[in-house]
């Protein structure tokens, strides 16, 4: 894995590469006015990534813009290339940055797929068995 490039004027404070990436993702989405940003910790639950970030944009144009800017910021600040799926239609854009997976949605598409519910396994209280 490449060593992260020094941040150019950014405010990244984490030292772990995964945490730095996660922090950069959240800051970029906040800067671009993402709506309802949620992080789901995956460490210990899945080997695909350490964090999953889900956020919404108000339109396909905003979703596409957030995805493009995020990919550029990750490349510029951390020297990592990302894989992007769904950019042409921008209803649901998946950004695979390695340790952090980002899903950007239009609100209607996000509510239809409801990834938060699917991936929050183990965080809800277990159902209590009835006593006989």
UniProtKB/TrEMBL annotation:
It is found in: Cytoplasm. It comes from the Bacteria. Keywords: Cytoplasm, Repressor, Translation regulation. InterPro entries: Iojap/RsfS/C7orf30, NT_sf. GO terms for cellular component: cytoplasm. PANTHER family: IOJAP SUPERFAMILY ORTHOLOG (PTHR21043), MITOCHONDRIAL ASSEMBLY OF RIBOSOMAL LARGE SUBUNIT PROTEIN 1 (PTHR21043:SF0). This is Ribosomal silencing factor RsfS. It comes from Rhizorhabdus dicambivorans. The gene is rsfS.
């Amino acid at each position: 894995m490449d060593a992260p490039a020094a941040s150019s004027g950014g405010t990244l404070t984490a030292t772990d590469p995964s945490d730095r990436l996660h922090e950069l993702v959240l800051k970029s989405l906040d800067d671009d006015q993402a709506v309802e940003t949620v992080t789901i910790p995956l460490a210990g639950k899945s080997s695909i990534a350490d964090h999953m970030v889900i956020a919404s944009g108000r339109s396909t144009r905003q979703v596409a813009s957030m995805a493009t800017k995020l990919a550029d910021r990750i490349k510029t600040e951390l020297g990592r290339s990302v894989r992007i799926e769904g950019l042409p239609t921008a209803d649901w854009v998946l950004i695979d940055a390695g340790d952090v997976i980002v899903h950007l949605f239009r609100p209607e598409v996000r509510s239809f797929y409801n990834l938060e519910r699917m991936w929050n396994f183990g965080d809800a209280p277990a159902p209590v068995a009835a006593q006989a």
